Every structure is written in C-alpha cells, then in structure tokens.
Amino acid sequence: MPSRHSIAASPVKGGAAPAGSPPAGRAPEEERRRAKLSRRWQRDLRWSPYAFVAPFFALFIAFGLFPLIYTGWASLHTVELTAPTDMEWAGLKNYVRIFDDEFFWNAARNTLIIGVISTVPQLAMAMGIAHLLNYKLRGSTFWRVAMLAPYATSVAAAALVFVLLFGRDYGMINWALGFVGLDAIDWQNDSWASKLAVSTIVIWRWTGYNALIYLAAMQAIPHDLYESAALDGASRWRQFFHVTLPSLRPTILFTVVVSTIGATQIFGEPLLFDASKGASGGGTHQFQTLGLYLYEQGWINQHLGRASAIAWSMFAILILIGLVNSVISRRLRASS
Amino acid sequence: MRAIRTARRRAVVLATVAALGAGLLAGCADDGKDEESTGSGDAKGKTTITVGLFGTFGFKEAGLYDEYMKLNPKINIKETVIERNENYYPALVNHLTTGSGLQDIQGVEVGNIAEITATQGDKLVDLSKFGKKSDFLGWKWEQGTTKDGKTVGLGTDVGPMAICYRKDLFEKAGLPTDREELAKLWEGDWAKFVEVGRDFKKGAPKDVTFMDSPGGLLNAILSSETEKFYNAEGEVIYKTNPAVKDAFDLTANAAEEGLIGKQVQFQPAWDTTIANGKFAAMSCPPWMLGYIKGKSKPEAAGKWDVAKAPKSGNWGGSFLSVPKAGKNTDEAAKLAAWLTAPEQQAKLFAVQGSFPSAPSTYEGDKVLNAKNDMTGDAPIGQIFADAAKSSPVQVIGPKDQIIQQGLTDNGVILVTQGKSAADAWSNAVKTIDNNLEK
C-alpha cells in the first residue's frame, strides 16, 4: 500500500500530472482546468483502489469477520439455539470441558485417521495419474475432463451412491466380496471399515482435481531437463524421481496444505454416510469427525455455546497444523 | 468512433455493476419487506395467509385451501413446504427466536411440540379461543398447550399404533393368523408379544425375523408408557425410570435372540426387507401402511393384517401454530382452526390417510369403513380409532427426540452388531448425557 500511495502523491510534489505536464505559455484558464483535472486524477488514483476492494471487505466483514468474532463471544457463554439472545456468562467453561470431552477427542482422532488415509493415497494416486496423462495420449482432453468429473459431482450425490455401494445387506461391494468367497463387511458399523469407506468417497472426489494440478505443473517443467537426463542414460523411472518430483516440490506443498485443510473440515461425507441419518457419525461415533461433532452440538443438540467453543478449538488446531507445515516446508527448502 | 465505443463499454460495465449490486442488496434485504407486500393485501384487497409446512400435510391435495378460499373470498392462501422436518425445524426455531422470516401459520411435528410449548410459547398466539377443546383427543390438546395453559398448537393428525403382520408368514411359522386371537395372545404386555416372537422363530422360514428393527420395537413400547423420559415436573428421568430400562432390555434381549432384524428404520436396506418379506410383524401407525405399500411388491397386497397392539401408543402427528410476529394473526388463527376442525380432518383422512385427532370423526363413515390395499378387508379404521382412544396421556419433554435417538441409534441397534445389552445401554447413556448437557 505505501508504494501505491507514493505514486499517487507524486504528481503534486513533482508537479507532473500523469496526463502529461502542461507546456508553458497556455492561457491561465486552461491552466486552471488542467489543475482541476489533475486534482481529480489524483483523488481518483488515491481512493479508487479502496472503492474497488470495498465490496469484498464489506462482505467479508458481514459474513466472515463478524461471525468469527461473534462465535468467539458466544463460546464464552451458555447459549441455546432456542433462545440465542439469552446468553449466560460461562467464562472458559466450554473450553475447559473440551479437555475431558471424550467425544471431542474421539472426533479429533477420527478426523486425523480419515485425513491421513484419504489424503496420502489421494495425492500419491494423483501424482501417478498426472504422470500418465503427461504422456502423449489419444483424446487427452477427454481423459482430463473425465478426471475432473468426480470433482464436479456434488458431495450429496456421491455420498448417496457410495452408501448404496457400501451397504451391508444389499451393497454391491459386499456382493462382489461374496463372489470371491469373502465374508460380508459391515461398512457402516465397523470402526476401521467405516473410516475406510468415508475416505474412499473423499479420495474418489479429489484425486482427479489434484492430478490436474500436478499435470499443469509437470507441463511447465522444461523439456531439456528430460532430454539431458535421457542423454545421461536415465530411465523413465529415474527421470520421474530425479527430474519431475523435485520440480514439483512447491506444487506438492500446495496440494498438501489444501488437502490438510480440507481433511480437517471434512463434514458432508461422514454426515451422509450415517445409517441413522443423525450427526453422531455411527452408533459408537466411529466415523464422527470434528466438523460433524460441531454440527451435532450446535444444530441437533442446540448448544450454541459449546458448538462455538468447538469451532474455535478447531481453528486453533488448524493454525497449529499450519505452523508445523510452514516449519517443515522451510526446513525442506533449506535442505535443498 | 473509439470514444463512442469506450463510452458504450463503460455504460455496459456500469449497468452490470449496478445490476450486480442491486442483486446483492436484494439478497441482503430482510424478509420482513416481502411479508409486508403480501401480508397487507394485494390490489384486489385480498388478505394473503402464508402457510409453512414440512413433509406432506395434504391440505392442498385434499382441496381444503380451495374450499376455504371459496368460503372466504377475501382470503388468499399460499403454502411453502420443506420436505424434511430435520431441515424445517431448526429454521423454524431460528425464525421464531428472531421474529422474522415466519409464515402466518407454521406446522410443528409432535417430536418438537414439547420444546416449542416450553421455549417458544410466548411467541405464539393462544389458539384456545379459536379451536374447540372438546373436538380433540384429550392428550392431543394437552400436547399443544403450554404450562401456563395457552394452547399454541392445534392438532392435525395422530399416529395410533397397532401391529401390522404378514398373514402368510405367521401361517408358515404355525402361528394363528386371526387378528382377534393374536391380540388376545399378547394383550396387555409387550413381553408376551416377544414371547409370540419366540414361537414364531421356532417355525419360521430361514432369514425371516419376527420384527423389522430394534428401533421399531423400542419405539412401540416407549410410546405406550405414560412416563418415559421426563416426569410430570419436567425433570429428565430416562436413566432411572424402570419403564425405560425394561423396554430397552426387552428389546435388546429380543435382538440378541435373533427375533428382530438388524435394520435401521427408513434406510434403503430396511425398505428392501419390506419388499422381500424378511420380517413378519411391525408396530405401525396408519401412515405406515402407505409406506409399506410404497415399498412392497404388488403381490404383497392383501397379505398384511392389523391387530391390536399389546398396549396402545402414538407415533407421529402434527400441530398447526400461529406466530405472533405474523401480519394477519387473527385470520391465520381462524384458518388454522378451520383446517383442524373435525369435518376437515375427516376429509383429509379420506384423501391422505392422515388419521384424525378429532374423535367425533371415528363414528363417521369415512373412518369406520376405511380399508387399505395392503390389509385387504381388515377394519383398520376401527382398530386405529380404538388405539387412539386408549393411548395414554403421555408426559412429553423438549429433548424426547434426542433421548430416543440415543437409545435407538447409539443403543439397541448395537446389540445387533454383537455388543452386549449392558454395553449398548452405557454407550447410549454416555451419548445422551453429553448431548443434553448445555
């Protein structure tokens, strides 16, 4: 901002209007008109940028900052959805109790597990697919669009189909398992199976999206790098490890950060995967994530104060993850 | 030329920005304005009454709005419907607490009526002067009345429960199929009903269970108790009430013995067990017959029958309420009273199958001679009317739904997944207590 400001102010100090300085010997009237114009220019230059960014910030304050602060305020109170204006001061009680709230930590653990078993295979597969798509292929546009199709599908539609696929009694996956002589798996009620199933939905939706990001980055790698590697006798495999991967480091970092944030907030998939259509994430909360727990406390159980405290705790956890992430990436950059 | 073009382009840009801005502002504008324009009457001097409902009440389908508008030419009725109560109810609470975005008449489900009367009573119009108390079943009227005696919800339909059973499956298992005989067999005690289930299991075809789901049985037993989760003073007693623990244990044991299917009601897999005839009996209110019909194969028609339940109870039903924040509270209250009057309830039953909460209709032709495709010539009207009249005046509380959901989805269902009844109970109690704590 300061640099913009100085540019805008310079015409006054230097006497050189951006429209071009007036040559000497003009009529004074013309001179005044020019000065007036220049003042308008100057005002325009100085204030217009603020006007242009104002709509975003107005909306951000109304729908981003205010709710954030209000949630923080509400988290210090006992508030119920049935009377949101009727707040009773509770101090840090809502936060303190999170420490021995086994449902919160269960949800945190589930979020972490589902996050790991969805993000890691997802990014690995995305990398492989991007590598394949990077070859000269017939109908390459078709393949790329096809990769993006799951991303364009709504969570609700995808989750409903997956619930049917993962059905215990009449699901297609168990039917296929039975075909090869394996026992049926209770995908919704078994602890690990349910997490795996929820992760599958996430993986299915996001792999193609990440693959396209990797593909875009791969296409920006100069071709001569591969050529010289090939001249040195490097196999395709070695080229991938020693040319492609190092060049993609910033992109990988970006996708890791975005996927981590996404995994922390995972909500729609476990909500719709629930057999009883509640928000408890299964009978024993086996796939209840933090987002789901927050929703359950706020909208099903109507405890706005508790839900707000959970929201802020999630925020704190995200910041912590962000810090760790940045430390690691700085280390990585330093080591390279 | 160039100047003209840039001017024109600038005009286009400006117009676009203006349009977008106007759209945004309109989006932010509060709903009160809309109500004002519709509420205070349109050009012809008509008063528009808006009705906000969930699911299928069937007023429109039964032609009741048209009839009312014909009777009252100055009234215009507009209905908005949200499909699922889970989505409808939180929004309704939000609108009531903020006093905006409300329709003139709002529907309330029986599972939420206790919370509405307990927490939103002062935001709703007292309808006791509009509706007639003697028209309604005593317990239905009580449910819509606040502690200080204001009736803020007028009852629409009720869901008196009986036992729906498959005659063909009972016969295969060597049980009697006559509804009177069966009703005698389990009269007065749900444990006797489970005992019949044990007999059923001895002779039943493989893969066919006696009942459909643990949730269904638990719900039937709990609904027939006078006190379940709250006592008359409004205290939560679900943990110490022996009736609740007995119901839980009876259900859990029956599930453990394999008398009950491992299903969750209203899930696709449960629907399939209806279609494939994988269970022989279920506790059902009148509206369930419509659901069974929707999920059954055509050849199942007439194979069902209905018998009196061991103890009667109610499942489902709704209320109409009038928020004070509305523009035409008087006209709206009149309409709500008219829609819930006995004559209209009888018409609604004929078209929609919603069972009336007005007992005077039970002697009428429409209820008395009611039949259903699935149950052949069974006199369902009489059976359900008897159940409605003998249902207890149950104490209901604001968090009934959360407690029952905990007992079902975090409780008895776990027994079908290999947990012991005691583990299932403690898991349910932990969940419920955490959910109730403010």
Automatic annotation (TrEMBL), chain A:
Coiled coil: none annotated. Keywords: Cell membrane, Membrane, Transmembrane, Transmembrane helix, Transport. SUPFAM superfamilies: MetI-like (SSF161098). Residues 14-26 have a biased composition (Low complexity). The keyword Transmembrane applies. Residues 1-35 are annotated as: Disordered. Its main location: membrane. It is a multi-pass membrane protein. It holds the Pfam family BPD_transp_1. It is found in: Cell membrane. Residues 108-325 form the ABC transmembrane type-1 domain. The keyword Magnesium does not apply. CDD domains: TM_PBP2. The chain crosses the membrane at residues 47-70, 112-133, 145-167, 196-217, 248-267, 309-328. Belongs to the binding-protein-dependent transport system permease family. This is Sugar ABC transporter permease. The lineage of its organism: Bacteria, Bacillati, Actinomycetota, Actinomycetes, Kitasatosporales.
